[in-house]
Amino acid sequence: MSVRAPKILAVASAIDLDFLYGCTPAWWQLWKGMHEAGCDLIVTPYRGRPVEAPWWRTEPNPCYREGELFVRARDAVARGRGDTHLRRAEEHPPDTTPEKLVRQAIWHWVTPRWQRHLDRIFEQERDIDAVIVFGVPMSHFRGIPERLRERFSVPVVFYDGDVPMSLPEYGGMDTGFNNYHGAEPGEYDLVVCNSEGGLERLRELGARRAEAVFWAADPALFQPLQVDKQMDVFFYGYGDKFRRDWMAAMVGEPSRRLPQVDFALGGSDFRGDTGRAREIGSVPFNVFGRAISEARVNLNITRRAHASVYASSTSRPFELAMAGAAFVSNPYEGIERWFEPGRELLLVSSADEAADAYRELLDDTARAEELGRAARERALDEHTYLHRARQLLELIGSLGPGDGGSRTANDALGERSTGGATLPGLARPRR
Cα–Cα distance between 65 and 142 in angstroms, integer? Predict the structure, then answer.
């Protein structure tokens, strides 16, 4: 007897790549992996308009106007303060009165509209097996998971792709909300995040069950390209918050010590020491893989929050590895969980070591090429988004009837989740 493809309703922080949200390109790749794993996926965005793709269908954003008006007002306040963002402290940012007032307004106006919107989708579709909330500020959906579970008997999962930086003690990026202030993680049947080391903290915040699914990279999107080299050392990132010291150690100081080496920075909002590095601005995501291949050496400079909490994955190491790049990273607690230092990447702990690593790889192209080959082999073996999609579907399929999932939904999800492939946590040992 054939098993019906599991139908998942995904509520996404955004689908539009123009917003430059760090998780959005990763969501695209994960959703493509879910499609490849046999999932019928419906995506509805919390900010911006829906964007169709071959791997999912969409539902509209019921609060599009409200969201854009809020962003314009927030940006106007930032400009009035002479800045581009409303900056938060990097440690224990307070839950301010304006933030509390914004939440009250959201609960009064936005949350009920989203509840009605999701009810309508369920009534229209009738056979949705599970709901996954991808990166929407958790407090903004307060009360919605319980209603969906009670009315439609489906498990509701929250997926936080930015732990530990999204936790209250860090407060997230300056472009978004403080994710857990006013939130109730226990409303969800499962909280999925990108960090093994952050799981206990999520449980402390009230999550009934928390599991890690790491980031990865799509091998069709990131692959080695035979292109002319345009840069010697290249870093791309959304600003230097939480990594200013390492930007200075890996870019600022080495660029002064190595005047013959071309350092390039992609992205924006670099406010610290970048030395002689030239800024090339934002790189459109459709040519990001090419930009990686145009550099002789790529950098992974992980923000302090992620680098200091064990196995808190970010997208960049997987993208660089899948692209076959020779890359150098700052110290990163748990990076050996995914890649072998010395064989698949180089780790440096000071400006001296960074400068030495760049000299080594720029002077020895065979060494750089071997590092990139080994990294790509490991990424193909263990770190594709098809691996992650199957792991995620397996987790959702494990939610029993008491968690809100029907037996039929669980059977469908469980049947489709593994497909005979090796899951990331069960990958073969490295020799």
Answer: 21
| Inside any domain, residue 225 | no
Tell me how far apart the alpha carbons of residues 16 and 206 are, in angstroms, rounded to a whole number: 31
Among 419, 56, 30, 378, CA closest to 215: 30
Instruction: Give how far the C-alpha of residue 270 lies from the chain's centroid of Cα atoms, to the nearest Å.
Output: 20
387 pLDDT above the threshold of 90: yes
Structural domain boundaries enclosing 282: 231-382
Please check the confidence at residue 413 and state whether its pLDDT lies above 90: no
Tokens encoding 27:
């969501």
Q: What pLDDT, in 10s, does the model give residues 134-160?
A: 999 999 999 999 999 999 999 999 999
Backbone angles phi, psi at 196, to 5 degrees: -70, -40
| CATH number of the domain residue 100 falls in | 3.40.50.11930
Strand order in the sheet with 190-193: 57-58, 40-47, 7-14, 130-134, 156-160, 190-193, 210-212
Rounded to two decimals, what is the model's pTM? 0.87
Same domain? 146 vs 267: no
Domain check: are 100 and 194 in the same one? yes
Residue 287 confidence (pLDDT): 93
Domain-located, residue 415? no
Instruction: Order across the sheet with 327-329: list the strands.
Output: 278-281, 263-268, 231-238, 295-300, 327-329, 346-347
pLDDT tens string 76-131? 655 676 665 444 555 666 667 778 888 888 999 999 999 999 999 999 998 999 99
CATH number at residue 344: 3.40.50.2000
In a domain, 340, yes or no: yes
The residue length of the chain stands at 431
pLDDT of residue 172: 52
Do 300 and 377 have their domain in common? yes
